[in-house]
Amino acid sequence: MIGGQLIAEARKRAGLTQTELADRMGSHQSVVARWETGGTHPDFDTVVSVVRAAGFDLGISLHHADQHDLALIRRELTLLPHQRLSGMVDAVNNLNAMQATADG
Amino acid sequence: MAEFDPVAILRVLVEHEVDLVVVGGIAARLRGAPLLTQDVDITPSDTRRNLDRLVTALQALDARLRSVAEPDGVPFPLDPALLETASMWTLTTRFGDLDVVMSPAGTGGYQDLARSADELLVAEDPELRIKVASLADVIRSKEAAGREKDRAALPLLRRTLEESQD
Fold first, then answer.
1. C-alpha distances out from residue A37 to A2, A7, A77, B57, B165, Å
2. Residue B29 is nearest to which of A1, A5, A85, comparing CB atoms?
3. Are residues A9 and A31 in the same domain?
């Protein structure tokens, strides 16, 4: 699905419709639509060339996977949007209060 | 410093019927990304009627220009024509900081973002629903902005997007 997301991101940043991007590749709008919605999964070389057709080069780098982040994400996704926001606001205001105390 | 209360900011904007999409860190958090932010970012529709409503809401919020030298902010003439002259306004209000971003990097502004936005419940009692940008659009904007703090958040945001689609 990441490949489809990158294609959609590149297309939207370029201000192209699915048809316009497909035209640049000599393809069809339905092909682009299936990539973007996860109906089909483009291989890596295809993603690189489609992103390039939209006017971008794809930069790739390796990062250590952070399992702590993953646990936080999964916990957050069990909550409803208003609960996520409320939790964040409490954390921010507590941090600010601690900072104010530390600053005297 | 006043306590940060993003719900209060959003409630005033909704009460004044401002057409907007919540973007940036608050949108990411509402979509499930476990990050912290201390300001509300919004992208309003840029029609003149909507900018009139936005100006009235900003007056109700006692919005001022954010300034390091002036913690309470700097008063400025709130006017729809003035709002149109800049792509971004960094403001402070009586409920915390508010950024009005007319056209976030990598996007076509309100109309572009509204297509993939959803109306989410951001508070209960009383209920408050507001349009929130998709996580994919938040990522698109942060990727295009390319600032250090945006780039640092991207792995977390992309991971959240993957997990939310599993």
1. 11, 10, 21, 38, 11
2. A85
3. yes
The verdict on A46 and A71 lying in the same domain is no
Asked if residue A62 is part of any domain, the answer here is: no
Name the one residue in this structure whose structure tokens are 């250590």. A64
Interface size, chain A vs chain B, as Cβ–Cβ contacts under 8 Å: 93
pLDDT at B141 over 70: yes
Q: Spell out where B35-158 has E strands.
A: 39-44, 64-65, 88-93, 96-101, 118-123, 128-132
According to the model, what pLDDT value does residue A96 have? 86
Asked if residue A61 is part of any domain, the answer here is no
Domain match, A48 and A71 both: no
What's the predicted TM-score (pTM) here?
0.85
CATH classification of the domain holding A27: 1.10.260.40
What Cα–Cα distance (Å) separates residue B94 from each residue in A94, B29, B33, B59?
Answer: 18, 22, 26, 11
Q: For residue B82, what are the contacts with CB-CB under 8 A and spacing of at least 6?
A: B76
CB spacing of B30 vs A100 below 8 angstroms: no
A49 and A71 in a single domain? The answer is no
* Full DSSP string of A27-77: --HHHHHHHHHTSS---HHHHHHHHHHTT-PPP-------HHHHHHHHHHH
Residue A1: what pLDDT?
A: 66
CB contact under 8 A, B121 and A88: no
- Listed residue (B140, B147, B161, B166) closest to B32, CA to CA: B161
| pLDDT tens string B57-79 | 999 999 999 988 888 899 988 98
Of A2, A73, A95, the CB nearest to B34: A73
